[in-house]
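Q: I have 159 residues here and want to know how they pack in 3D. Can you give me a structure?
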Amino acid sequence: AADIGVSRAQAKQYIDSYFETYPGIRRYLDEVVAQAKERGYVTTLLGRRRYLPELTSSNYNQRSFGERAAMNTPIQGAAADIIKIAMVRVWRRVRNRLKSEGFAARLVLQVHDELIVECPEQEADAAAKLLEQEMMNAMTLRVPLTVEVKKGASWYDAH
């Protein structure tokens, strides 16, 4: 509610309307929480586990946190898995081009779902293409992974 500047009642109405429109998402989230309560953990797309002892807490706030974490972890964890794969693939490609072509680009940072590559301006197009290819192909899913590559003199400028 605070993030979008509406009352809590309006935010609840918005969420309820969303789940009425997309009932499969509500079922999925309910199933994830039920499985987490049964197992004590949730998994990411690649099988990493997050244990959630909060789910058995007698404290309502802790239990509610555990339920939210159970819902968020599979999605956010999948994104983390994918960006880590992409990061390794980009690093390998950059390293191989450095050895074979004297490519000066280098992977310098990950920020959430972004990979930051630093390079001379004359390599920017090649680095952008390499980055896009590796990020889009980091994992094969039923839906395509899309990538938006931006260039700038600094991270701030690229945004």
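Q: Anything worth noting?
A: The radius of gyration is 20 Å. The mean pLDDT is 92.
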